[in-house]
Amino acid sequence: MQIALMIYDGSAPADSDVPRTGGVPLAPAGFAWPLCGCGGPLQFFAHLPVEDGVLSVFLCQNNPGACAFWDASSSANRVYLFPREELRPVAVPEAGLTLLPATSAIRTHVVTIDPEDACDEEGIDGAYDLARSGWKWEPEEGFGKQREVLGSLGGSPSYLEDDRLPVCPSCTGTMEFAAHLEEGITRETAMKLGGQLGYVFVCRPCREGAFLTD
């Protein structure tokens, strides 16, 4: 079993078409910045190029704790799957918490995990946690450098019960897991997830997305 960890790789241009957290979203012409049910604009979290497009992740940070960005059915988060063609920087609203303080480049690092080590006694997949916990762990170190891990792409959702898997609002099918998201390496680069692990899901035929936390 292979896990594609997303590793912090320094700063990146705010409008670059590279895997990154923060910066400015790239979207097709006519895209309107998403709003939360509270009336404020969502904050742009991540630009994640994938095989069939770009995942663009937004969460509400205007009133932390009041808007349920952790709930897949909430208006306080959005996940879009855009086609790669003709993406352009989106105009940023003047008011509200819309952008992260810094833009962080992401590189991928593939870790191979023994499937027998990855599942607990109830059969729940913990491969991501295992891969993350081993990142840059050396015998002479007192601790690893797990905060460099910004999440993972593909694979299975770590320790997430089946009854929490989101359903596509268009076709009512169960969405496919796409990525884990971690808060980040520093306060300046962090995506504020309340100390929780984020899960990104997508329905590829409908190009619908969803987000939740553990």
TrEMBL record:
<protein>
    <recommendedName>
        <fullName>DUF1963 domain-containing protein</fullName>
    </recommendedName>
</protein>
<dbReference type="InterPro" id="IPR035948">
    <property type="entry name" value="YwqG-like_sf"/>
</dbReference>
